[in-house]
Amino acid sequence: MSSKKIQTNTAQFENTPEDIIRIASYHRRDYTLAVIRINPSDHKQVRSSICQPFGAPFTSLRRLGRLPLETVHEICLHLDIQSLFQLRQVSRRTQQIVSTTRGYQQTTTHALDALCVILRTKIASHFTLSELLKVLCTRDCLLCGAFGGFIFLPSLLRCCFSCIRNGDLPLVISVTDAKKRFRLMSPALRSIPALQTIPGMYSMGERARKKKMQLVAVDDVIRISEARSDNDRAQGTRPRESPLLPFMVTTALPYLDVASGSIQNGVCCSGCQLFLEDALMTSTLPGDAVDLRDKVYSDDEFLIHFRQCQKAQELMRLSQEGTSAANLSEFVRRRGYFKKRDVILTFHNLRR
């Protein structure tokens, strides 16, 4: 399927835009499984402490209780995520205050998995909930402008899977290498986020990583290094990065459309996948077929693409006869390709 197609008006279909997205597109689960992810059952206690009321005592807020509620809420907005959750567990009153802070409900509802990852990777003390909310409400990758369904954790940067896979993210380096290369001591490194990796299976190549390590952004290390004297500063070029590291410092994050209240995870075109499979059978593969199959769209972007995609339109017609893309393509049914990664977690999420 070439990108130079005759435009077709979606008005010829009686389906709503929601129906078109549901029938002719799918979410790539293999992209989500290639980065940091968590099994919901492993974090029930963390989730409940973040989202649900609990039986804390009604203790006095002392001096904090003398301040206007608006002032206390403003203080909460400036607390880092770790401190904010610790404050919430002090008493029922602080639980009420934190839970009604601007953006708390939106973030804990729609970015809960990312919050659990931020806490588990031990970078929660470096970012505020307001900063995470801002990323949640940002749609596009800040590096290339495509739909960004992921977040680069060392700087809470909205990014897309292509930038992760192509190595276009900011470089990261282990804390051990940062100390050696930039001649830094541990106290200096405490001022920047040091992400503790989570053992698991990473990248589209499904490579296992069992050993934990601490990773920091090279830009952060250079910044604190440049604040020191020339004699203490490291010399030489920027370090090279392992191809696996970008996957180990990112996680999925949906986009919250504040205007409509809708949540988007990004979708790929089922029609483009079917076209690719047909082209492989006939050995007539256009140069852009794989790129079109792998492209992730926002809902609005997909509706524009749908007008140009004859295979997606064919799926809509077939759906009226009871045939779905999942019946035609195993790749679409599985929502991507993966063999080894967390089989139980994978199929738990496929049922969602």
Uncertain runs are 1-8, 229-236, 342-352
Shape field: globular
Main structural class = mainly alpha
Separation, N- and C-terminal Cα atoms = 30 Å
Helix content: 40-55%
Pfam family, one: F-box
Protein name: F-box domain-containing protein
Domain F-box: 61-107
InterPro entries: F-box-like_dom_sf, F-box_dom
Structural notes for this entry:
Among the domains are: 102 residues, no CATH class; 86 residues, no CATH class. Helix content is 44%, strand content 10%. It is built from 21 helices and 12 strands. It has a 3-stranded antiparallel β-sheet with strand order 3-2-9. The chain has a 3-stranded antiparallel β-sheet with strand order 4-8-5. Strands 1-12 form a two-stranded antiparallel ribbon. The longest helix has 13 residues.
Task: List strands and helices in order, with pairings.
Layout (H helix, E strand, L loop, with lengths): L16 H8 E2 L2 H5 L10 H8 L17 H10 L2 H8 L3 H8 L4 H7 L1 H9 L8 H8 L13 E3 L4 E3 L1 H5 L6 E3 H8 L3 H4 L5 E2 L3 E3 L4 E3 L4 E4 H9 L18 H4 L1 E3 L2 E3 L4 E3 L3 E2 H13 L6 H6 L4 H8 L3 H10 L5 H4 L1 H5 L8 H8 L2
Antiparallel strand pairs: 1-12, 2-3, 2-9, 4-8, 5-8, 6-7, 10-11
Helix pairs in contact: 1-17, 5-6, 7-9, 15-18
